[in-house]
């Protein structure tokens, strides 16, 4: 079955922009997540409905690519669709469109269907594909690459404590907040002179309020004024990998 893609519109507000009055990468991730949640609600499998059965979709991978970021006051449209249901996971695609309906960004994501009580994956229900429909098109071809689990050489580390405001409805850190930890470890000259054009994240372990974490980053040149960053989020006490990430930074247009 092929279904129409789902769409939601968002205006860029003052608290969602950076000093250049552009939407922050975290803002874009929130828009994507909100659109996915709204789509599920619209087809009858919303967060609350699943939670009442002890079930949830757990995000495992993000890959976001941005040509440029929308400005304060602009409206963007997020278009989303499922591209695969298989065993215990599903993939969901996104286009980010500006007010002229031009695609300015794209994303792919991988979600695991999960029993909250047993903390184990479950086989995806057949009725999901019937409800959501299926569109085999991919927003990003071959979106999920292998991510580095070790950082050779000198890198930068920043330590954090998980705050109450980091926690989502499942009692764990919201997936988008890992991006804040990643960005805090990026060297200042890269963060100021470049923009985040590509982000890949793999979530490996959950973490909760009060936990201590370390964000580790190593950025290397990838051409004139461009950089490739490898990132690891570690539990301070356990030493376990909580998330891996890769970022691509391109010089800001003059």
TrEMBL record:
CDD domains: 4HBT. Keywords: Fatty acid biosynthesis, Fatty acid metabolism, Hydrolase, Lipid biosynthesis, Lipid metabolism, Transit peptide. One of its GO terms (molecular function) is fatty acyl-[ACP] hydrolase activity. Residues 4-132 form the Acyl-ACP thioesterase N-terminal hotdog domain. Coiled coil: none annotated. Residues 155-250 form the Acyl-ACP thioesterase-like C-terminal domain. It comes from the Bacteria. The keyword Transit peptide applies. The keyword Cell division does not apply. SUPFAM superfamilies: Thioesterase/thiol ester dehydrase-isomerase. Belongs to the acyl-ACP thioesterase family. This is Acyl-ACP thioesterase. It comes from Desulfosporosinus acididurans. The lineage of its organism: Bacteria, Bacillati, Bacillota, Clostridia, Eubacteriales.
């Amino acid at each position: 079955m092929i279904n129409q893609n789902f769409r939601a519109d968002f205006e860029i507000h003052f608290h969602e922009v950076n000093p250049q009055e552009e939407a922050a990468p975290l803002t874009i991730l929130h828009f994507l997540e909100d659109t996915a949640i709204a789509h599920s609600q619209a087809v009858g499998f919303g967060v609350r409905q699943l939670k009442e059965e002890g079930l949830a979709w757990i995000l495992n991978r993000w890959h976001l690519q941005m040509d440029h970021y929308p400005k304060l006051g602009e409206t963007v449209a997020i278009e989303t669709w499922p591209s695969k249901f298989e065993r215990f996971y599903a993939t969901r695609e996104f286009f980010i469109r500006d007010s002229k309906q031009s695609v300015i960004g794209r994303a792919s994501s991988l979600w695991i269907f999960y029993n909250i009580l047993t903390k184990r994956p479950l086989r995806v229900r057949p009725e999901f594909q019937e409800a959501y429909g299926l569109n085999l098109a991919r927003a990003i071809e071959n979106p999920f690459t292998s991510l580095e689990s070790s950082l050779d050489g000198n890198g930068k580390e920043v330590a954090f404590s998980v705050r109450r405001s980091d926690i989502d409805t499942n009692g764990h850190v919201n997936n988008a907040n890992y991006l804040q930890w990643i960005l805090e470890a990026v060297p200042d000259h890269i963060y100021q002179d470049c923009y985040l054009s590509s982000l890949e994240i793999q979530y490996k372990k959950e973490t909760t309020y009060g936990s201590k974490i370390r964000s580790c980053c190593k950025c290397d040149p990838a051409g004139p004024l461009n950089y490739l960053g490898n990132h690891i989020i570690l539990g301070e006490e356990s030493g376990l990998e909580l998330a891996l990430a890769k970022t691509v930074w391109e010089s800001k247009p003059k």
